[in-house]
Amino acid sequence: MRLSDTIERFIKAMLEEDAQEIELKRNELAEYFGCAPSQINYVLSTRFTPEHGYIIESRRGGGGCIRIFRMQQSTADQLLYMMNERIGDAIDQLSANHLIQQLLERGLVNRSEAALMLSAISPQALSLPVTSNMKDAFRAKILKSMLLEVARKSRNG
């Protein structure tokens, strides 16, 4: 069995014991398994994703505290999670495109909604005489606004 599989099973066993959430220290976990912290990051980023039913909160510094939550949420809650955790205060064009593609693949938005989102955050729509950081902030606000509307629509049926 690969180390990644062992780490995944260990974390899932801890989640079973503590029900819906656990808190770990990245460095302590890496030391326990005799690996680099980047190996822990790899397992978390590939096997404990929203697509797999998990939410991860990560705090930098002090050994890297990680909280893992098991999701049991509605579509609207998943959208709100993406809005807060995946978009943040700014999002670049490529990341935004990937996020919209994931929303479409998971059935959280339909093709028409995805096309409108892509159009609203396109380089053409944001061809303003401002820095790319400002464009990323505008893109985040636009995406969040659209996701809020999709979440409202989802909750109302």
How would you describe what is shown here?
It is a single chain. The protein is built from 7 helices and 3 strands, in the order αβααββαααα. The chain has helices spanning 3-18, 26-33, 37-47, 75-87, 93-105, 111-120, 132-155, and strands at residues 21-25, 54-59, 65-70. The termini are far apart. The chain is elongated and about 50 Å long.
Notable characteristics:
7 helices, 157 residues, three-stranded antiparallel beta sheet, 3 strands, mainly alpha, elongated
Mean pLDDT over the residues: 83
Secondary-structure element order, N to C: HEHHEEHHHH
The spatial strand order of the largest sheet comes to 1-3-2
Shape: elongated
Broad structural category: mainly alpha
Number of alpha- plus pi-helical segments:
7
- The gyration radius over C-alpha positions equals 18 Å
Beta-strand content bin:
5-15%
- Main beta-sheet strand count, sense and barrel state: 3 strands, antiparallel
Q: Report low-confidence residues grouped into runs of 5 or more.
A: none
Residue share in helix: 55-70%
Distance between the termini: 45 Å
Question: What is the number of beta strands?
Answer: 3
